[in-house]
Predict the structure.
Amino acid sequence: MTPVSKTQQIINDLTNQITSGQLQPGDRLPSNNELRAQYDVSITVVRNALQWLKARGLVEGVHGVGIFVADRPGSV
């Protein structure tokens, strides 16, 4: 089995939390720095994971405020 990249791990974890209802529409995700520390990765890895989630409509960013679960999360 191929090891999962750190970017993919963050994507999988956050996607699972959203689809399971653990994170609800409108909930704020941890900050980039909190995710960086939690997963022990660079800020670039966190940004790549969040960009993937944004592109699929699962989360949306509010400049200067944070990243939030989308009101109608897109399909994965």
